[in-house]
Every structure is written in C-alpha cells, then in structure tokens.
Amino acid sequence: MSESEHTDTLTVDIWRGGQEDGAFQTYVVPHMESQTVLDVVTYIQRKLDPSLSYRFSCRVGMCGSCAMTVNGKPRWTCRSHVDSVSENGRIQVAPLRNMPVIKDLATDMTVFFDKWQKAKSQFVPTDGDASDFMNVDPASRERKAASAGIECIGCGVCYAACDVVEWNPDYLGPAALNRAWTLVNDARDGDPDGHLRAVATDAGCHACHSHQNCAQYCPSNLNPTASIAGLKRKVFAAALKGRL
Ligand code: SF4
Ligand code: SF4
Ligand code: FES
Predict the structure, then answer these.
(1) Are residues 120 and 210 in the same domain?
(2) Range of the domain at 75
(3) pLDDT tens-digit series, residues 15-64
(4) Which of 66, 80, 105 has most ligand 3 atoms within 8 Å of its beta carbon, as the pocket-test mutant?
(5) Do 9 and 30 meet the contact criterion of CB atoms below 8 Å apart?
C-alpha cells in the first residue's frame, strides 16, 4: 500500500476457533508507522480480546514461531510490515496451512517435526577417534551444498506452502528433506546411506513435484526444491551401486 493510501485504522480479519468450527472475526485497530502483522495481532490480544491465541518469541526473524497465513500466504508475521501486505487498509490473518489448528492462530506442529524424525534428520556421529578435529574444506562441493541449506529455523512456512503435503499427508515435506540433504553432504556424518534410505520412500524425495512454492516462500531464502533434487540424484546413484 502506498503512503497516499495510508488509513488511520486497519480492518483485520482473524481466524478464531478450531479448524472445523472456527470462522473469521473482524477487528479494527490503529494503523501505525512501521507496524508489523505481529504488532497488529498483539494489539488485538492485549487491547481488544485477551482470549486470542497465537505464538511468537523473538520478534526479529530468528525463532520462526510467529509464522501464520497472511492474505493467503505463509509468512513470518514479525517480519511482515502491514504496509507491504495490506490491501485497501485490510488484512486477513489465519493459522498456517497443513497443520492441525489448536485454537485461533496457533497450530500443532507435531506432525511437522515428526517428519524430521522420519527423514532421519539427526546427525550420526562416526565411530572414529574423537580426540582430533576433522578438517572439512569449506570450498568443497559437499560442504557448500550442506551450508546452503543449514540456516533453516524450522518455522514451517515451506511446509504450509507445499501442495504435495496437502494432497499426501505422509509426504515428508520440504524442511525435513532439506535437513536430510545437509546431513548427506556433511563429511562428519557417519551414516549418509541411512539418511538416503529414510528419504527414498514413497513419501520421500520422489514425491516432490518441484513446483518451488517452498523456495518461493522460505523467509530465510533457502531452496528446499534444490536440496530435494540433490537427494533424488544421490538416491538414484546409491541405488545403482546397490547401497540402498
Ligand atoms: S518443490 Fe517439492 S517440497 Fe517444495 S513446495 Fe513443491 S512439492 Fe513441496
Ligand atoms: S526451509 Fe525455510 S521456510 Fe522451511 S522451515 Fe526452514 S526456514 Fe522455514
Ligand atoms: S517471532 Fe521469532 S521469527 Fe517472528
């Protein structure tokens, strides 16, 4: 919205209630300079309706807990300025897609993090001598690939943006697969084939349709689509060599 369209108030439609029995409720709040969507939600909870449930922590784009659907798109609300997302002085705020709604804007992220477990997204230490540091060349192809995906903060925005997750609830999703890719490329990890085996299932990397929604919406500018494409290549190569 341009300055000339600045309004003194904002009309905010907020999802209230559960997934099945909820509905949008409309609030009018003061429109301030440099106001974020999280500021608006917080204003409503503090001044208009203390029963509004939502989640946030850092307010500076580091924790990922404030992700919601704003005007139909998944976003970090603490990094979304009202003036860049409002339309004619109005915004709509809903919970993230593809996760059960606990209440109002708070989702249950259990299914999202369970899929990280299913993708075997934990680092596996080697059995080797731990008394010495492993030298990893930061310019190596593998380290660059791992570093490109390492800054994920687990916000769930990509998961909410992924249509395949909506169609196939078993699909591991972009964040868990991106994490698996960083481990497969980590020279210090002791079980790269174990990670590949975990993602080579029907619900794993081959289910991705490469339509890039995850990369388009990731606020950390990561590219899970590229990570998943890398996993597909590694799974194929490992299968050809009889390792999977
Ligand atoms: S590229 Fe793959 S993981 Fe990303 S949104 Fe599309 S289907 Fe989902
Ligand atoms: S890949 Fe990006 S959008 Fe997805 S969980 Fe990580 S930081 Fe969030
Ligand atoms: S509150 Fe931490 S990223 Fe928004």
Answers:
(1) yes
(2) 3-107
(3) 999 999 999 999 999 999 999 999 999 999 999 999 999 999 999 999 99
(4) 66
(5) yes
